Amino acid sequence: MIEAQLSALPGLREAVVVPDTAHRALTAFFLAPSGPAPTPESLRAQLLNRLPAVMVPARFVRLDAFPRTVNGKADRLALQTRADERQPLSRAAQAAAQTQAAP
């Protein structure tokens, strides 16, 4: 559902959303046509209008291409490994991650 909503946004071709291995934050990987891509802040704002806040990814990463499995599908395991690479979060993403982790 998250991927479908993200892929439906203008300026995106395809999206894959994976959790980090600790299952504390979601990372959205997306493909965009050449040229300027939407900013993570604009993607987050648009998704907040479509999804509950807990379903909005903490990170957004633009890729030129997804790693693929032998069957041609997006390699979610490879993307999950990339999600574990610690990238700085924006303040909004930090707040969202803390809210999601709160009991």
Structural write-up:
This protein is of the alpha+beta class and 103 residues long. 34% of the residues lie in helices and 16% in strands. The protein has a 3-stranded mixed β-sheet, with helices on both faces. β2, α2 and β3 form a beta-alpha-beta unit. The radius of gyration is 13 Å and the shape is globular.
Task: Summarize it.
With 103 residues, the protein is of the alpha+beta class. 34% of the residues lie in helices and 16% in strands. It contains 4 helices and 3 strands.
Instruction: Provide the spatial order of strands within the biggest beta sheet.
Output: 1-2-3
SSE series: HEEHEHH
**What is the alpha-carbon Rg in Å?**
13 Å
Mean pLDDT: 85
How far is the N terminus from the C terminus?
24 Å
Largest sheet: 3 strands, mixed
What brief labels describe this structure?
103 residues; alpha+beta; three-stranded mixed β-sheet; 4 helices; 3 strands; 16% strand; globular; disordered C terminus
Describe the protein's topology.
Layout: H1 2-7, E1 14-19, E2 26-31, H2 40-48, E3 59-62, H3 76-84, H4 91-101
